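Hypothesis: this fold can be encoded by more than one sequence.
Test: take the structure tokens below, design a sequence, compare later.
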């Protein structure tokens, strides 16, 4: 999604803005721009396409010098990717210049109103309305004007604003879209995400909804919309800076795949104490659990796929009924939710707009919300009743890998915690699960240690244009993730089906040479999967199977095979997903795709 960076201080703003925007490239974008205050004017340079285009323009244009500036990478929503629609946007007479993440929902109404008042618009964007509104209502007091326009706009926004009448201040505001203020020495920053400024400062303020920051070179004042000063707590970011670097890997995705043993270890080990899952951060008591009549899981994309695994695991081990929904569907389906429902929200970024809206809807209806989140202090974490943080570290690749794996391990711990409390599991079963949980990081390490066979298979099939994934039970949940991983980074058309459902229509797509990835790790349904493999083979499919290392009998039925170590069935997805991630990665690499920044995609989808 779009990225924002801003600077005020004693150094030239442009190189700092470009450096920050480069760090935000991973979020996905289609155009970029900067605006810098210089000689009583705010000069804007922007361009469609990669940052390189912007850098080339800036090299020719020496007017973009100065020590106050804002920059933006745009992911188009309103208006096609073009030079004109790129941010920053200026008001008609150049009094205000704005960068914006989010969507102004009532922009058409406001635009018509302003046109009626004689304003001329140059772009098709919702953002330009903000710059024009600021100029329209400007009465010489910038803070008052900002507060005034906030009462006029609806939607989600993180905004960086420069006014040509005040070269000493950078203005920042947020609602439902993340924005931080970076605190330096005689210089300060704004950014939509930490990597943009972490090489400049580790001290930040996280802005909350409807907070307005007035940022000067030597200080920051934060106000609410009643013009009262807010006291902010300084947060120190203790990320390892190499987390945001490729560290010798060709892509962040491969680096993050290889970081999974560590990420899972970091998530599990602080919560495994003397053979017991200890979730100190959870306020959910035994009484709270006993009064639940269902758990509803909401999430998007890969986080939703973790939820599908969680449904199987919770129902099997904890025996509480589970519903699962895609957040964008849940929020508009009038769900039956009350105080007897626990809503489990799963999100890496903690900022996904639909997931956040589903959370708010659930709370409105009286449910308790427990979230599994990676980004500390994110909106979803802040608004949940309970938060379980995954410790995946920053995930840069748009396609998630290590966050998915840490979410899975958090789910297992939650399952064991609830089952133990409700007595739905014997002491012996509990201990077996704990022993496996302790071994999980080492087994993950083992599974990813040899990538040669996966590379060899990828090099045989990378030119295919249709690949199907099938599985049953948790293998079906995995099929969804394997298929998504492949299509999002390689652009190969791929579908995932519950294997038993194939005969009800989709099997008509299978023909000579169609590649079917058959997931057969779930022991209880292994024989059923063998039958499904035979069915697709009989129709000409080439089959790539994924199973546990004890199931060598599959070899006679399949063309290619990936083995994973054996573990209890609940935790199998943590191992089985690894060859699928690597398969997608090597296929996309063969196809020369932009793996870390696939076309049209964005990390952290902060708009609906
Ligand atoms: C796919 C992927 C997305 C995210 C989804 C939810 O590889 O990364 O499908 O899983 O956009 O994002 P979060 O977890 O940040 O809510």
């Amino acid at each position: 999604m779009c990225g924002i960076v801003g600077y005020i201080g004693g150094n030239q703003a442009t190189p700092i803005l470009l450096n920050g925007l480069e760090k935000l490239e991973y979020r996905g974008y289609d155009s970029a721009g900067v605006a810098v205050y210089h000689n009583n004017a705010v000069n804007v340079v922007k361009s469609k396409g990669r940052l390189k285009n912007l850098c080339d323009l800036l090299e020719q244009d020496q007017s973009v010098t100065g020590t106050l500036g804002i920059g933006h990478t745009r992911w188009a929503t309103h208006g096609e990717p073009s030079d004109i629609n790129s941010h920053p946007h200026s008001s008609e007479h150049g009094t205000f210049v704005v960068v914006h993440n989010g969507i102004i929902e009532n922009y058409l109404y406001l635009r018509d109103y302003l046109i009626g008042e004689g304003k001329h618009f140059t772009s098709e964007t919702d953002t330009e309305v903000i710059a024009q509104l600021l100029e329209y209502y400007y009465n010489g007091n910038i803070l008052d004007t900002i507060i005034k326009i906030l009462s006029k706009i609806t939607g989600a926004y993180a905004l960086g604003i420069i006014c040509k009448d005040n070269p000493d201040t950078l203005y920042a505001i947020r609602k439902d879209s993340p924005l931080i203020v970076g605190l330096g020495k005689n210089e300060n920053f704004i950014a939509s995400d930490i990597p943009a400024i972490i090489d400049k400062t580790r001290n930040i303020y996280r802005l909350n909804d409807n907070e307005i920051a007035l940022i000067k070179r030597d200080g920051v004042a934060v106000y609410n919309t009643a013009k009262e000063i807010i006291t902010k707590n300084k947060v120190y970011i203790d990320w390892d800076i190499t987390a945001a670097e490729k560290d010798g890997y060709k892509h962040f995705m491969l680096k993050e795949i290889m970081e999974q043993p560590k990420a899972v270890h970091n998530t599990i080990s602080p919560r495994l104490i003397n053979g017991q899952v200890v979730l100190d951060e959870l306020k959910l008591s035994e009484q709270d659990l006993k009064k639940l009549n269902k758990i509803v899981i909401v999430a998007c994309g890969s986080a939703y796929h973790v939820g599908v695994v969680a449904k199987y695991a919770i129902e099997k081990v904890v025996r509480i009924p589970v519903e699962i929904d895609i957040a964008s569907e849940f929020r508009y389906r009038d769900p039956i939710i009350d105080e007897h429902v626990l809503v489990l929200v799963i999100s890496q970024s903690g900022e996904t707009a639909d997931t956040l809206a589903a959370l708010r809807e659930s709370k409105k209806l009286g449910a308790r919300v427990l979230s599994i989140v990676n980004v500390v202090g994110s909106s979803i974490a802040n608004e949940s009743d309970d938060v379980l943080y995954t410790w995946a570290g920053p995930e840069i690749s748009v396609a998630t890998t290590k966050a998915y794996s840490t979410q899975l391990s958090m789910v297992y711990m939650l399952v064991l915690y609830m089952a133990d409390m409700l007595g739905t599991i014997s002491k012996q079963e509990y201990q077996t699960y704990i022993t496996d949980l302790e071994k999980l990081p080492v087994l993950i390490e083992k599974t990813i240690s040899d990538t040669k066979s996966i590379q060899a298979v990828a090099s045989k099939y990378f030119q295919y244009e249709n690949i199907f994934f099938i599985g049953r039970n948790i293998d079906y949940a995995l099929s969804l993730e394997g298929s998504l991983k492949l299509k999002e980074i390689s652009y190969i058309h791929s579908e995932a089906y519950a294997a038993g459902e194939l005969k009800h229509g989709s099997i008509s797509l299978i023909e000579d040479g169609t590649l079917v990835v058959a997931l057969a790790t779930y022991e209880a349904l292994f024989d059923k999967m063998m039958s499904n493999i035979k069915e697709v083979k009989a129709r000409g499919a080439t089959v790539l199977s994924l199973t546990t290392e004890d199931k060598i009998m599959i070899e006679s039925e399949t063309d290619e095979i990936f083995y994973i170590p054996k573990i209890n069935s609940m935790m199998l997805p943590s191992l089985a997903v690894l060859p699928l991630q690597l398969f997608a990665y090597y296929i996309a690499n063969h196809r020369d795709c932009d793996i870390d920044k696939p076309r049209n995609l964005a990390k952290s989808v902060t708009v609906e």
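The CA atoms of residues 134 and 149 lie 7 Å apart. The radius of gyration is 26 Å.
Hypothesis status: open.
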